[in-house]
Each structure stands twice: as C-alpha cells, then as structure tokens.
Amino acid sequence: MPVISLANTKGGAGKTTAALLLASEYVRQGYRVAVLDADPQKWITNWYETGGKDPSLTVISEVTVASMQTHIREMRDQIDFFIIDLPGQRDPLLATALGLSDHVLIPVQGCAMDAKGAAQVIELLAHMKNQAKITIPHSVVLTRVSSIATTRALSAIKDLLVSRGVNVLETPIFERSAFRDIFDLGTMLHKADPARITNLDKARENARVLALELKRLLPAKRREQPLGLAARLRQRAA
Ligand SMILES: Nc1ncnc2c1ncn2[C@@H]1O[C@H](COP(=O)(O)OP(=O)(O)OP(=O)(O)O)[C@@H](O)[C@H]1O
Ligand SMILES: [Mg+2]
C-alpha cells in the first residue's frame, strides 16, 4: 500500500489531473485505490460524486494534518495505492503528506516550468532529509506537454533538472483534452466512451505508461512510517 503524493506549491501545475489519471489507471489494473483529496477545490471529490464512483476507489474528502495519518493507517490493509492530491499553495498539509509518502511526484509544466513551486517542494524534502534524516524518493513529471513537442525540447528541460540532481520521469503527461473531459463527464479513462472523447486511446496509453514507470519506483513493501515529521523533530530535539 504505497503512498504517492502530488505536490507543487504553484497552482495549476497539473497535480489533480495527474492524481486522477493515476487513480484511474491503477483501478483499471484491478488495484484498490484511495485518493486523499486535500485540494481545497475538491475536484476529485466532485468528480467522484458526479459519476466517478467505483467499488475499487475510495475518495476521502475531509483531510487534515491530524487525520491524514489516521486515514492511511486505518485503510492500509484494504488499499493498494494511496494517492494524495495536495493544494497549490504552501500549506501545513504539504509537510505531513510528504512525510507519509513513499514517492512524491512533482508535476511541472513542460512549457512554463512551474519552477518555483517545484523548488519549494524539493527544498522541503531536502530539509526533511537534513533535519529529520527522512529520505523521501521524489520525481518531477513533466505535464501538459504538447504532443508535437520535439524530443530535443523535452530533453533540454529534462537535462536541466537532472543537472540539478532531480529525477525526471521518462514519461511526460501530454496535453490532452481527454484529461479534462474525464472530469467534466465524471468518468475514468477506461470507462469513458471513445465516441465522446477525442484521442481517448492515446490518453489511456499515456496513463498506462506513466503508472507503470511510477510503480517501478515504489517499494515492493511499504516502509514503516510510524512517526510524522513533527514528532521526529521533537524526538531529535529532546
Ligand atoms: N495533461 C493535461 N492536458 C490537458 N489539460 C490539463 C492537463 N493537466 C492539467 N490540465 C488542465 O490545467 C488546469 C490545471 O490543472 P490541475 O487542476 O490538474 O492543476 P493543479 O496543480 O491540481 O491545480 P491547483 O494547484 O489549483 O490544485 C485544469 O484546467 C486542467 O484541466
Ligand atoms: Mg489541484
């Protein structure tokens, strides 16, 4: 039951979209998925209530610093993947979620580079490593990448991030109307009607490859995470 967080303190980077397409793909593969919806806009909660319901999917819409760890602990035996959708701003939930994560995925738009918001998350992860000796694996995923973007343009962005020591996923998330349409239609990618969504097959393939790459980065068995960051810091200070 690994925990994956989507984090970037810049609004609109593509966190919620990435969270939904990963949830959708893991459900398609037969896994039981729980989304912890910590985005104040509650897109995934609304989507779930307007048609996204599925027996393999749980959406928790009331998530607080105090309750996040409890939700995970209480559901850990019934859930294969926890996905935490975080707010697009600095928020106390961010550090809590990072501390509970097995992998932090940082969406960065291929064109605009939400560099500052991504850098804040990466700095916080470095701080947790230095102060609390918690190493949390993390990667940038390039999002809203134009399907006509050249491999060279993409490599240039990747190389820049890699030169700064950031792991960048091989698979970007392409700009596709399908990723917007599934929110509007209240459906998952694999349940959607190809007659109503353009290039649905390409969107599904993108989600499939991304979910596969991410799965390879997750631990086979989740590491134990008995204490949150605040508790660890208190313990170290004592
Ligand atoms: N790959 C994509 N293809 C097409 N549209 C996208 C894609 N990713 C994001 N969008 C659109 O960009 C907008 C912002 O995306 P999203 O809501 O996923 O970002 P966010 O990081 O969750 O934002 P916030 O920080 O406000 O929560 C939305 O309108 C969404 O539909
Ligand atoms: Mg969001």
Automatic annotation (TrEMBL):
Coiled coil: none annotated. CDD domains: ParAB_family (cd02042). This is Chromosome partitioning protein. It comes from Rhizobium aquaticum. It comes from the Bacteria. Pfam families: VirC1. Gene3D superfamilies: P-loop containing nucleotide triphosphate hydrolases. PANTHER family: COBQ_COBB_MIND_PARA NUCLEOTIDE BINDING DOMAIN-CONTAINING PROTEIN (PTHR13696:SF96), P-LOOP CONTAINING NUCLEOSIDE TRIPHOSPHATE HYDROLASE (PTHR13696). The lineage of its organism: Bacteria, Pseudomonadati, Pseudomonadota, Alphaproteobacteria, Hyphomicrobiales. InterPro entries: DNA_Partitioning_ATPase, P-loop_NTPase, VirC1.
